[in-house]
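Action item from last meeting closed. Structure (456 res):
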C-alpha cells in the first residue's frame, strides 16, 4: 500500500476511536497496552532492563518508575528496536539540517524487528536543554498522517479526501515525516524557516494551502509581512498559542486550531469544536500534580514500536479543563500548555535590513556545544547578545560563540555588527518559567514590533 492510501485508510480507522466514556477509553487503552508492552519488552533491551530492575512484569507497566529525555538519549541504542546507533542518527540528522536536505532515512539493522525497513530520523532542540533524536517507522508515519488528516481537515473525512488537499508546513527541520504523503490529491510543501521573512511570505502565498501548519509566532510574522492564504484550517504547533495571536491569525488567514506535538509523539489534537483533547486513543497519560491546577505528563505511547515511549516524563506543564466538551469525547481537555516560552530575535542583516532569528535555530546551535549543561541567550540591545552559560568556562564560551555565530550568519544576520557577551547562568527563582531565548524590551528597530507583540 502506498503512503497516501495508507494515510487515508488510517484516517477512516480513526473514526472508530471516538470514546464517550472514560471506562470505554480506558478499556481500549488496556487492550492496546497488553499486546504492546509484551512486544516492546521482548524487543527493546532498555525497556526490558527497566522492568527487570523494578521487579515488574510487562502487565504491571502502570507502576514502572518513569524515565526522561536524558535517559532516553543515554540508552538510545538499547531502546530502539531497529538496531540503530545514536551516532549514525545524529550524523544523518545534522547533515540534513546543515544541507537543508531532508530526504535522508536509515534502514533497520538486519537482526532487528525492522530489518531493511525505512526509518525516518529527526532531531528536536526542545525547550528542555537536552537534544532529542527521534525515529519513526513507515507504518507509524502513515498513521501519523492519517490521524492528522482525520482530525484537522473539515468533516466529513470522505469529502475532504476526495478534494485535492495542499498542506503547507513552516518548520525549522522538515524530517521525512512531513514529505511522506505525496500524491495528486495530497501534497505537502515545506517552507524552510531559514529563508528571509518576505521570501517565506511570498512562498506561502504561492503555495495556496488548504491546511497551513506552523508555530504561531512565525505565522504571525508572515501575516504581518503580507502573506495571503485562505486555508480551511490554520494549525498552530511547537509554541504556546496566545489569544492575541489566535485572533490575528483567524482574522488574517481563517479558523485556527492547535496541535500539541513533540519529539515524544502526537500528544493532543483539536476536535471539531476546536477544543484540544489529549490523544488518548493512542497515548496513555499519567499526570503528576504540581499544584495550582498544573500537571506534568508521563506518557506511554501505545503504538510506537521503533522508539518506544513507556512511562516517559515530559518537560511540558499542562493545565486541564474539567468541563465536558460538546463533541462528547471522553478524552481529557487541555486548557493550556506551558514550557515553551522563547522569543524570536531580530538583528540587522548584511544590507542593514532586519533579519528574524527563530529561537529554535539558536537552541539547536547551543545543543551542539559539548559539556554545556544549561544556558540562556538574551538580546539586550539591537546589536548585543548575551550568552549566559553553565558551566561558564573558556571551552564552552569558545564553542558556544562559534555555534551561535554560525546560526546567526545562516539566518542572514551581519555577525560583524553583533556584540557577543558572556556571563554565568545564575539559578532561576523557583517556579519561574524556563526561557532560553529572550529578547529584552528595547525600541530602536521598528520591525521589532512584529515579535514583541507575540511574546512579551
Ligand atoms: Zn471536543
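Sequence:
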Amino acid at each position: 500500500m502506498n503512503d497516501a492510501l495508507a494515510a487515508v485508510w488510517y484516517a477512516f480507522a480513526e473514526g472508530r476511536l471516538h470514546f464517550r466514556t472514560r471506562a470505554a477509553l480506558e478499556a481500549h487503552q488496556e487492550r492496546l497496552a497488553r499486546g504492546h508492552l509484551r512486544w516492546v519488552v521482548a524487543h527493546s533491551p532498555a525497556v526490558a532492563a527497566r522492568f527487570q530492575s523494578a521487579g515488574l512484569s510487562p502487565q504491571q507497566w502502570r507502576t514502572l518508575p518513569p524515565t526522561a529525555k536524558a535517559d532516553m538519549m543515554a540508552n538510545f541504542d538499547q531502546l530502539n528496536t531497529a538496531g540503530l546507533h545514536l551516532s549514525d542518527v545524529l550524523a544523518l540528522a545534522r547533515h540534513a539540517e546543515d544541507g537543508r536536505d531532508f530526504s535522508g532515512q536509515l534502514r533497520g539493522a538486519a537482526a532487528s524487528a525492522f530489518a531493511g525497513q525505512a526509518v525516518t530520523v529527526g532531531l528536536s532542540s526542545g525547550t528542555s536543554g537536552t537534544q532529542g533524536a527521534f525515529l519513526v517507522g513507515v507504518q507509524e508515519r502513515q498513521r501519523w498522517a492519517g490521524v492528522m488528516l482525520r482530525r484537522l481537515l473539515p468533516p466529513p473525512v470522505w469529502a475532504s479526501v476526495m478534494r485535492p488537499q495542499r498542506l503547507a508546513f513552516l518548520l525549522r527541520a522538515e524530517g521525512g515525516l512531513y514529505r511522506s504523503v505525496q500524491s495528486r490529491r495530497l501534497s505537502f510543501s515545506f517552507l524552510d524557516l531559514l529563508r528571509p521573512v518576505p521570501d517565506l511570505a511570498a512562498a506561502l502565498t504561492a503555495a495556496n494551502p488548504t491546511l497551513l501548519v506552523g508555530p504561531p509566532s512565525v505565522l504571525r510574522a508572515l501575516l504581518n509581512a503580507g502573506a495571503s492564504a485562505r486555508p480551511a484550517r490554520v494549525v498552530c504547533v511547537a509554541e504556546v498559542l496566545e489569544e492575541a495571536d489566535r485572533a490575528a491569525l483567524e482574522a488574517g488567514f481563517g479558523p485556527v486550531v492547535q496541535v500539541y506535538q513533540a519529539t515524544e509523539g502526537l500528544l493532543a489534537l483539536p476536535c471539531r469544536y476546536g477544543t484540544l483533547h489529549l490523544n488518548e486513543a493512542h497515548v496513555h497519560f499519567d499526570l503528576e500534580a504540581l499544584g495550582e491546577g498544573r500537571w506534568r505528563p508521563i506518557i506511554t505511547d501505545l503504538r510506537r514500536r521503533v522508539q518506544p515511549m513507556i512511562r516517559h516524563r515530559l518537560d511540558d506543564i499542562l493545565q486541564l479543563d474539567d468541563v465536558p466538551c460538546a463533541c462528547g469525547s471522553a478524552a481529557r481537555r487541555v486548557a493550556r500548555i506551558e514550557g515553551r516560552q522563547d522569543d524570536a530575535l531580530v538583528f540587522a542583516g548584511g544590507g542593514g535590513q532586519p533579519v528574524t532569528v527563530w529561537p529554535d535555530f539558536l537552541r539547536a546551535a547551543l545543543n551542539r556545544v559539548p559539556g554545556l549543561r544549561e544556558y540562556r541567550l538574551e538580546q539586550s540591545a539591537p546589536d548585543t547578545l548575551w550568552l549566559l552559560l553553565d558551566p561558564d568556562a573558556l571551552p564552552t564560551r569558545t564553542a558556544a560563540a562559534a555555534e551561535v555565530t554560525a546560526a546567526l550568519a545562516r539566518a542572514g544576520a551581519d555577525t560583524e555588527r553583533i556584540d557577543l557577551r558572556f556571563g554565568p547562568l545564575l539559578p532561576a527563582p523557583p517556579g519561574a518559567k524556563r526561557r532560553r531565548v529572550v529578547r529584552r524590551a528595547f525600541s530602536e528597530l521598528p520591525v521589532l514590533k512584529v515579535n514583541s507583540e507575540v511574546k512579551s
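Note appended to the action item: The longest helix spans residues 22-43.
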